[in-house]
Design goal:
The chain has helices spanning 42-45, 103-116; strands at 73-77, 93-97. It is mostly loops and 133 residues long. The protein is elongated and about 60 Å long.
């Protein structure tokens, strides 16, 4: 199996979600983040002691942005023919088999990936054992 070219440590700066203002006070206000637009809003004005707002400082490092935990970039595959571009880029990209691909085509994709020495991120998805038949 190919090893990833970029082994830089992936740093996730923010693990907790940003919570919407007053979502803890009212049931009708869902916790999904919305920006405060009020003219006197403490949150919008960024006073001390208020909850954090998303800003550019929470962004990922550009060299590790979009990297999967196995240090490869994802490349979605829906047919065995789509594996060909990964032949030369197998140290940077790994194949991710689409969720709409059935078991028969999945098996073909996995065989072709092993021939091309391409890593597959989800090789065991949607496979059932046929013991009880």
């Amino acid at each position: 199996m190919p090893r990833p070219a970029n082994r830089k440590k992936i740093v996730n700066k923010k693990l907790k979600k940003f919570v919407r203002f007053q979502s803890d006070l009212f049931k009708r206000v869902k916790p999904a983040w919305r920006f405060s637009h009020g003219i006197d809003s403490r949150i919008r004005r960024g006073f001390r002691g208020t909850r954090p707002k998303p800003n550019i400082g929470y962004g990922s490092d550009n060299s590790t942005k979009y990297l999967l935990p196995n240090h490869f970039y994802a490349y979605k595959i829906r047919s065995p023919k789509e594996l060909e571009p990964l032949l030369m880029n197998n140290h940077k990209y790994c194949a991710v088999i689409g969720s709409t691909v059935g078991a028969r085509k999945r098996k073909l994709i996995l065989e072709r990936a092993s021939q091309l020495n391409v890593k597959v991120f989800n090789p065991t998805a949607k496979f059932r054992t046929e013991e009880h038949e």
